[in-house]
Amino acid sequence: MTHPIFPDLQGRSVFITGGGSGIGAALTEGFLRQGARVAFVQRRDGAAFADDMSRRTGNRPLFIACDVTDTDALRAAVDQAQVAHGPVSVLVNNAANDQRHETLTTDEAFWDWSIAVNLKSYFFAAQAVLPGMIAAGGGSIINFSSISYMMGNAGYPVYTTANSGINGMTRSLAREFGPKRVRVNALAPGWVLTQKQKDLWVTPEGLRAHLDRQCLPDPLQPEDMVGGVLFLASDASRMMTGQALVIDGGVVVTG
């Protein structure tokens, strides 16, 4: 898949959570191919992925090991990225975990963990990059949500709660920091067939039923999220903020 080139992204300092696998890996590669300076965090070792990206794109990302639920570690990772690449001008909050669970068997520990991954980390990553963005005269924050809460899906109620909260947070931050020319938008994917989804939850029957709900007939791939994120990061969307961009093949209808 070939993505458009946004010349203004060349040299930009980009920070991506969960940037070494699934959708995040596609985003990291997408920004590297724009000539951006990319730092990404995740819990598992991302050194081999960084090596592969360097070979394939000629542009090496900075991998920082970090559990995004550890707020102090997340702040330290942002600081490390800014020392290496300059103040973050694009933050992509992508890290998430849609582990299946049922309301009646969910305990407080699981609730706290899921909210920490899927919502709290987004807020504190934004908090960490905002001073640099303000000092630089602007920036772009892109928060990954999901259409799952729009569809009213069962099977992961804490996750959908966090998804809905991401939209509320996005709008509030857009309003608060718009005067400083910091744009904050959400991106809501449909069912993207990452390797994790294929390994854990994709069945022929379930996929067929979901594709029947899409307007477009093709399954979503991680690469399908890249163009929208590049657009939201670039000056091409300079007057777009507080919005939720849906990329789902036409399952939900907004507006």
From TrEMBL:
Stored Gene3D superfamilies: NAD(P)-binding Rossmann-like Domain
Entry-linked InterPro entries: KR_dom, NAD(P)-bd_dom_sf, SDR_fam
SMART domains: PKS_KR (SM00822)
Ketoreductase domain span: 12-194
Recorded GO MF terms: oxidoreductase activity, acting on the CH-OH group of donors, NAD or NADP as acceptor
UniProtKB keywords: Oxidoreductase
Signal peptide stretch: none
Pfam families from the UniProt entry: adh_short_C2
PANTHER family found in the cross-reference section: 3-OXOACYL-[ACYL-CARRIER-PROTEIN] REDUCTASE, SHORT-CHAIN DEHYDROGENASES/REDUCTASES FAMILY MEMBER
Family: Belongs to the short-chain dehydrogenases/reductases (SDR) family.
Stated name of the protein: 3-oxoacyl-ACP reductase
Organism: Gemmobacter lanyuensis
